Amino acid sequence: GGYTLNITGTGFSSSSSSSVTIDGNLCTSPVVSDFSSISCTVPLTTALSNTQVDVIVTSGSNTTTSPTQFTYDVTNT
């Protein structure tokens, strides 16, 4: 955790509140760069090995789970 995750897609809105959760933990400092890009700081994990987890993005009233899971690299947490 503690590093930046960049997410690309569509429908991100800087005029509404946006959030990203990874494995149920809220990313900090979300920044919507434009309609197709959002970034945030990855939360820490207590996993003991590299673990694949869900990424959920909420932008306005839309919530989407990424079709690709995020893999924590425990050497960086």
Automatic annotation (TrEMBL):
Domain IPT/TIG: 1-72
InterPro entries hit by this protein: Ig-like_fold, Ig_E-set, IPT_dom
Pfam families, alphabetized: TIG (PF01833)
Cited SUPFAM superfamilies: E set domains
Protein name: IPT/TIG domain-containing protein
